[in-house]
What we know:
The complex is a heterotetramer, with two copies of chain A and two copies of chain C. By secondary structure, chain A is an alpha/beta fold. Chain A is built from 14 helices and 17 strands. In chain A, strand 13 (322-325) and strand 14 form a beta hairpin. Chain C has a single domain (3-140), classed as Sufe protein. Chain: A (Alpha-Beta Complex). Chain C is globular. Helix content of chain C is 52%, strand content 11%. A two-stranded antiparallel ribbon of chain C has the order 1-2. Chain C starts with a helix and ends with a helix. The longest helix of chain C has 24 residues, at 123-146. Chains in contact: A-B, A-C, A-D, B-C, B-D. The A-C interface holds A 55-58, 60, 62-64, 66-67, 70, 257 and C 51, 54, 113-114, 116-121. The complex binds pyridoxal-5'-phosphate (PLP) (2 copies). One pyridoxal-5'-phosphate sits between chains B (30, 93-95, 123, 125-126, 171, 175, 200, 202-203, 223, 225, 364) and A (253, 276-277).
Amino acid sequence: MPFDINKIRKHFPILEEKINNNSLIYFDNAATSQKPLQVIERIIDYYKKENCNIHRGVHTLSQKATRAFEETRVKVKEFINAESSHEVVFTKGTTESINLVANSLGEKLLQEGDEVLVSAMEHHSNLVPWQMVCKKKKAHMKVIPFNDKGEIILEVFKPLLNSRTKILALSHISNALGTINPVKEMIAMAHEKDIPVLIDGAQAAAHIEIDVQALDCDFYCFSGHKMYAPMGSGVLFGKQEFLEMMEPYQGGGEMVDTVTFEETTYNELPFKFEAGTPNVESILGMGAAIDFVREYDLHEIRKHEEELLKYGTEALSRIEGLKIYGTAKEKSGIISFLLDGIHPYDAGTILDQLGIEVRTGHHCAQPVMDRYLIPGTVRVSFAIYNTMKEIDKLVGGLDTVKKMLG
Amino acid sequence: MPFDINKIRKHFPILEEKINNNSLIYFDNAATSQKPLQVIERIIDYYKKENCNIHRGVHTLSQKATRAFEETRVKVKEFINAESSHEVVFTKGTTESINLVANSLGEKLLQEGDEVLVSAMEHHSNLVPWQMVCKKKKAHMKVIPFNDKGEIILEVFKPLLNSRTKILALSHISNALGTINPVKEMIAMAHEKDIPVLIDGAQAAAHIEIDVQALDCDFYCFSGHKMYAPMGSGVLFGKQEFLEMMEPYQGGGEMVDTVTFEETTYNELPFKFEAGTPNVESILGMGAAIDFVREYDLHEIRKHEEELLKYGTEALSRIEGLKIYGTAKEKSGIISFLLDGIHPYDAGTILDQLGIEVRTGHHCAQPVMDRYLIPGTVRVSFAIYNTMKEIDKLVGGLDTVKKMLG
Amino acid sequence: MEKEIRNNINQIINEFAGFDDWMDKYNLLIEMGKSVPVIEPQYKTKSNLISGCQSRVWLQAKYDGGKVYFAADSDAVITKGIVSLLIRVFNGMTPDEILNADLDFIDEIGLKDHLSPTRSNGLTSMIKQMKLYAMAFKVKEKAGEKE
Amino acid sequence: MEKEIRNNINQIINEFAGFDDWMDKYNLLIEMGKSVPVIEPQYKTKSNLISGCQSRVWLQAKYDGGKVYFAADSDAVITKGIVSLLIRVFNGMTPDEILNADLDFIDEIGLKDHLSPTRSNGLTSMIKQMKLYAMAFKVKEKAGEKE
Lengths: 406, 406, 147, 147
Ligand SMILES: Cc1ncc(COP(=O)(O)O)c(C=O)c1O
Ligand SMILES: Cc1ncc(COP(=O)(O)O)c(C=O)c1O
């Protein structure tokens, strides 16, 4: 379908809403995206016509829902170009996906004195799970620094990879700075030393193309709710060899094959990792979101968001006293900034009065804020439905902020 | 509101569906319940008008959604009569709630040689997590037997409580047999020996009244999707003293207070246990489901389901060659049975052709099937919208089954 | 697909097409199950048990003169009917014919919703197991040739 | 609620009622923040920091002649305005008056959405902290009486 922004916006009913008597301008997409009608309608249809518990049911509802659920797995497999759909594990989100790997792989691989390597720009969700398992295993966490522009320093990264390094956990795109990390290169470097790599793709899905085979990552995680899908859907891609060697993370429900009090054998992949009743609603919604994204082609979406990034960066740079944090060469549609002498909380509060929804604070990436010695930033993040005109309004809004608070 | 079954049924659009050209008769409520319009509309409203990521956002959408989310926590607190709403942790379902406790409490309490006590009628979700942590900790799992009627044998239970017993994990209602266990009595007996008790209330919520203070249980778990709420919502109630002593289960997102690479401090209760973006949609839907249930009063609902149980039990008992498994004195609206010489899979398949959706198999409670030396059962389970007439049709359907397969 | 397999499939489709009523179709399926080459009791072993079905299904295969022959049993009569359909299609075929077969025909016989590849009826597992047998015989034969 | 507290609240509500425009209301709030009894630098300690706000808020209390007096500061001017409102309401009240106060008045000044008790603005945490101070003074005094 041709990329027609007006048509696209019509798919998102929330964009018609008023916030404090102003039209909603939603620039908090890195936190969560809005949902197109296609996704909302998929949910309605599901609950009005198809709802039931899947897998072991023999009845028609269950068979149909099971089929739709497993077809979505194939859709996700294609979306990220995995080799096989049993390498696609459904979770409730990125955080759970990472915790699963930190727990099950960490348990397997980490010994006292071993190291887990992360970057200094990770979201807490790709930091705290590793801290927790390191503490348990008496392993250490090592940190890859980034430069003032928000780029990982590859010369420092390389020597950090050593024989004690057991896992590299890295974000594809930084949610606080927008940096697109050179993950492919870094994965190759880690693999030279046989170090498995987990990529946190929470900010990548539906913004840039994901090809897990081309990247050759061992794990890839993302959340549905940031890619136009319902809340409560998430993906863990894992290479079969790793998923097979790992113990299940949670027990119960469909993840078992046979259960006696003495012994339990686990189901095959991917079910081994899907304990409890799966969130069928949310996964079917994710399928609808993937269909929606595919309709427009990811390259078109990327082009649009790059234009917004360029336009926004230029416009914001012209504002006196405004400093952008995160000026990497490779960037996604995220701009973090501060106005001289104005606390991000104050700025966000005033912008909100104008209907402009931005995120303020540390964006669950406190170490990034510590790196720049700032309390937080104002962050605008773009999605398929944002426009240049909305950026113009943001610029006007920042003018008001400065007048009131400057 | 007066309990008018015809009006109630109108709230559930799926009941208008046809299955294999017959009107849907949905008797698989123990697996998952259908959703009333109130819940479906809450979801639609949320995505069309309110969707955003909660807690740290300063903008209006986020403030409103945060408030609605936290108000739902209060609603749940009232629904189960907890002392404080920070004893209510939101999870994705019963299975996750139990895994959380098995992990975090098990880690804290279990030493080599210790014992975890469960009943022989537990769902795999209240079995496998304990098996997993027992294996890790070299602890043992002990099993409370039940008699032929499906009632826990209290005389055997009592001596199983000993100084090595560190946790008792018990279902409020058995999903395979329908037995309502004497949990209050058993909790008191365990507490005499200072043993904390977790109650798996997956089959209780919205069917019988839950009062965690009257029960005096230390943990109580249930799933939204079995109580008219969306998939992906669950609750873990925990007494403050236990939740406070436990380490977080998952890391990331809002569960932290401050994060540096050296040290992370955790957020207060209940947020410490809610890592990652919460499923706002699903939790608000759970709020709507509680409102729906409250409109009719739980006693009325219970009365209706007891009538269905009585009518159904009598009707099925008249069928020659039919044997009911689970004939406890205290029972919920669940009937498990077998027809002489007919495999449950065959029976379920034929019933489905008649639009009657029942569950067949081991119901994720294999040890129960082993106890009776049967491969599985046919299970019908009732909810607020089921009718006597539907039971009559089931009886007719079983006649067809016998004709075709007997 | 090999012509012979297609013929077997068409024959089955025709037999089912004779009935409009689901009850008749199921009765036919159940009847067909009764004629399945029955696996001998000593072969009802754990290793011949197909996992992933609600009912138990045992499947055994032998290789004779370049062709594969199956025997099966199940404790559920509908499942037995399903496995008998597959055996009718595949019995006496070469490993390659079995490996190359496309099994969408299940859709065509009008029992689609029931015989769709979900975990409860084990259809996928049965087909997988049959193809595994075929693969095993093929590999063995090749190894034999090399010797 | 104690009359004095109610009077303080009414006064604030009246002041805000004079403005229709959100911008004027915010300007007033920001202005009010400037007149907050400022906490002295040596008291800007970690233990006086209120957690749960996006901006940093320090709150200190002293007890004098049976009454509680607060001082505060924040690095965000709107937050400072919010804390100044609370201080205006509570300053010079007895511990009991503070403990019994109901704080729904926040809704009435027309900044409702912003001053609602969510975690980002820390309003709940501020009130909690003020009540904690009041409680501490009360307990201390009672202990003193007993001695
Ligand atoms: C880079 C990154 N990683 C992980 C997460 C966590 O995702 P979720 O909260 O959906 O689990 C986020 C989003 O907040 C993120 O931006
Ligand atoms: C008694 C019991 N416990 C636990 C569960 C697991 O619930 P969920 O799959 O929603 O996590 C179920 C439902 O399947 C159940 O019936």
